[in-house]
């Protein structure tokens, strides 16, 4: 399947660095900012040829193209289970880490976080996203090296040197093969340097991440691929950043796109992507950025928690309600949140090496570093209806329980 389709490139102003705000700011704050707009980028649709990666010769490979298809990427999760964040973290994360070690030969792999995408469910669920319909990367060299510096101190020293790879694993989760809104990847060898590597600030509450958003200037030279009719037991690996400068491909531009030939009755695309970091300690020469001589694991752990808090708008509604209630309770509530995050009961942050006393210190550090302000800033504008429904459910459940307890109490 080779098809013509429109991909959205990004055109920014000539005299200003590109930026995107991922969250809604109060109008008065936006107006007072040096970056008052939600974004200063304009999407430019360009018609390109998208090749069938299944019949590519030679096959699409991580080392040369920046991406590859794993055709036997078995998972034990069903469609519905992928919408359960706890199940994904407990079951799917270990599956992906084991697959990466097997497929790439890395010494250690760690899933950082995930995103489930379904454009029909996105309006009603904070933990489900729409499709990324613009050509982009999720990081650049600076952002990826910052990630390494934040995460590596939590691991054994053997993983502090060698090579690291920041990558995504993308998988459909629906019961039907994907027939629209495919994921397209660009062969890095077709990119033009430095024109195609335009840095954009991806602004989150309290922080920003450097990503790439290419202009349409060289779009006609780019070679694009997709893997049609993917199923749940297939997965695409694609690079965000590879520390090894000898690799032909070190990044991978990607985007979702509408298939002009897709039937109007085509099922909605349902997918999950996980961002991961892989460590190759035996790689020579060392291509990892230097760490401090005495790295502080508590500071590194605090940074990882704060990154998750920056994405608070994507947390489930129940978790956001818990945060709002905790903030309402004041310092005691904030400290309670800090303790729970530091415990890392679900293994979300990889704090297995931290002792109970170190986790206590981590909770203190989070509070000292302004956790209350970061939580407040990370929360999205309140939608009162889910909270009202929860309060009503509690009230309607508590009143009958109270009545029943008194009505049946012995005289």
From TrEMBL:
InterPro entries: AsaB-like. It comes from the Eukaryota. GO terms for molecular function: oxidoreductase activity. Belongs to the asaB hydroxylase/desaturase family. NCBIfam families: CmcJ_NvfI_EfuI (NF041278). This is Uncharacterized protein. It comes from Monosiga brevicollis (Choanoflagellate).
